[in-house]
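Late entry, evening session. Most of the bench is empty. Finally got around to the prediction I had been postponing all week. Sequence below, unchanged from the version circulated by S.P.
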Amino acid sequence: MSKKQSQKPGGKPGQNREDRLKSALKANLARRKAQMRARTDDKPDDQATGNEDKG
């Protein structure tokens, strides 16, 4: 089985599969980083509030 690489007419120039995957991965990573920042911002720091678990 041979791989066919066909270009669809009317597509954006220079926007091949690798470029699309690269930009999707970058957007996904940025979104995940933003989620993690939001989660850590919502949690109060144990050291900052003095609520350390001493047990």
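Two things to note before I forget:
The chain has a mean pLDDT of 78.
Residues 7 and 13 are 10 Å apart (CA to CA).
Will write this up properly tomorrow.
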